[in-house]
Amino acid sequence: MDMLRVVPQPVTPAISARSVARRQRSSLASLTDLRAQGEPWIWLLGGALSFGIVMILGFLLLVFWNGLVTFWPGPIELVRLSDNSVIAGEPSRATIYRPGPEVLQALEPRVRDRIANNGGFAERTLFRTGNYDLHGDDFRWISDFAVASVDTPRDLFLIERQEWGVFVGRIESFRWSGRDVKVSDPHSQELRDAHRQARERWARIRAIERSDIGSVNHELEKERLRLRKAEIDNPQGGAVLDGAREAFARREAELKQRYEVLATQAQELRRAHEAESVTLRDVGGREKVQPLGTLIRFYPANDLGLLQKLTVYLSRWAEFLTDEPREANTEGGVMPAIFGTFAMTLLMVLVVTPFGVVTALYLREYAKQGRLVSFVRISVNNLAGVPSIVYGVFGLGFFAYILGANIDALFFPERLPNPTFGTGGLLWASLTLALLTVPVVIVATEEALSAVPRSMREGSLACGASKWQTIRNIVLPRAMPGIMTGIILAMARGAGEVAPLMLVGVVKLAPELPIDSYFPFFHMERSFMHLGFHIYDVGFQSRNSEAGKPMVFVTTLLLIGLIFTMNLTAIVVRTRLKRKFQGSQF
Fold it and tell me: What is the pLDDT of residue 586?
């Protein structure tokens, strides 16, 4: 009888409920331990920090790219439309849009089918056509389906003018030395020589009107104020007042004679300036005749080599950094805004530094620690959170309307009712921003003072030094890097503030700098321009946002560069101070 062979089967151990529970508890313990170590939060915060850095770098890259390419000369396209009309301009940007029903009905069936196949969308390009004085607009949208042909003729010029913005078209001829010269060569040297001499004559006219005649007007105003002061001091009349009036009459006659001579010179130069004209023609055939000296620069945009483009690019940057604005701040330079921003920031630092440092020294080194000092510290910290516009209202009310009005009444009564310090100006704007940033300096200085080891203070006092000698020679030098950190933060915030400045001194256009050759040479009572407000004005208050957009980017780039330069200078000073006392910190 055959024996049945039994094959042993592998035995699978039974998983008990206790084992499953043990594994679950182990996994939960591992997860709990991971949370206890803070790993998820560390990754979350690290990701948020990385995202913020990427956003900042993206913003800076956007500003840098748009700012650097703003002044690069681009080509001019001659576009012939399907209705046989022509336009010429620089392509600015392209976008996709959905045409309206009335537009679609006017199109040919094949064009409507193409748009329908594209989901109902079409492309269009924004051209900078210029010629505002002829057409009433600087830019024009052109849909791609309306374009019949595109060409880039070599004889098309982009002409930057003193008024009415750019002109896009051709230079037909110019009048020079009593003769008409036809322009056949886009690179005519004779035209450029005539233009250079016309610009020199225009500069002489401006110098006479602004400098020479301005000096005469300044002297006349000073004599008028002197007579007005004599009238205020002698309300009953008398010999003193009669002598002042006679002196004023003699001086007025001399100054008027000088004025007439200068006005005659300016008038003769202006007649010659207007006689030297240039004839411009747009692609539609309309002509524009204007003085040759009013052309700032011109070039055949489609017939430039790399070196010629670079020359135009650098000349635009030079104009931007050294000239004053024109065309409602959308063209020209920003030199008054650069000077105003730098002067206001420097004056703010000179005011906020001693007040912030002295306050922190008193709170940390001299004041008896208690509830009152704690209340003061809390108040200082709360001041850092007050909206900046509140500081602007306070600066206008206290500095301008109260303090400035009293200064005018005491020292400038002859100028009233026209205010001198009783209105917004560079001084009041700087003091307002000093109030805005003083909490930052106080907090940073206190932290720097507390970081100085107590053993250094005790060693100095043990050697016989007084408390002030210890602070001046031991504490302050070693706390200076931290103090410089607070100054850097205050400088960065103050230079970028705009809201309070709109109330206490900044204006849309102030071509005259606060510094000149008249005593007291630096006029802190004058209104001024600011790069931050210039960005706001061009971006949101100009008649044409498209025309102002390039200036917004390039001015933003300049403001970032100016703040970076000032901060870098302060950082270098702080680093040297830190290196000097590095060996004696501990």
Answer: 42
Please, what sign has the CA dihedral across residues 167, 168, 174, 180?
Answer: negative
| Domain total in the chain | 3
311 lies in a domain? no
Amino acid at 549: K
Q: What contacts 164, CB < 8 A, 6 or more positions away?
A: 132, 133, 327
Question: Based on the domain organization, do 127 and 175 belong to the same domain?
Answer: no
pTM of the model: 0.85
Tokens 């900042």 belong to residue: 56
* pLDDT surpasses 80 at 39: no
Average pLDDT score over the chain = 87
Please give the biggest Cα pair distance in the chain.
161
Instruction: Give tens-digit pLDDT for 311-346.
Output: 999 999 999 999 999 888 888 899 999 999 999 999
Roughly what angle, to the nearest 10 degrees, separates helices 476-496 and 545-580? Answer: 180
585 in a structural domain: no
Which one, of 166, 174, 170, 167, lies nearest residue 197 by Cα?
174
**175-196 exposure pattern, b = at least 16 Cβ within 10 A, e = fewer:** bbeeeeeebeebebeebeebbe
Task: Give the Å distances, CA to CA, from 553 to 297, 498, 563.
Answer: 22, 17, 15
Determine, yes or no, domain membership for 198: yes
pLDDT attached to residue 28? 52
How are beta strands 122-128 and 139-143 bridged, if at all? antiparallel
Q: Residue 291's beta-bridge partner residues?
A: 277
Please state, in angstroms and rounded to a whole number, the distance separating the CA atoms of residues 287 and 301. 20
Mean pLDDT within 514-529:
87
Do 141 and 157 form a contact (C-beta atoms < 8 A)?
A: no
The answer to whether 291 touches 269, Cβ cutoff 8 Å, is: no
pLDDT of amino acid 80? 93
- CA 522 – CA 343 distance, rounded (Å): 10
CA end-to-end distance (rounded Å), the chain: 100
* HSE-up of residue 159 (Cα within 13 Å, Cβ side): 30
Task: Out of 482, 500, 531, pick the residue that ends a domain.
Answer: 531
Predicted confidence band of residue 407 (pLDDT cuts 50, 70, 90): very high
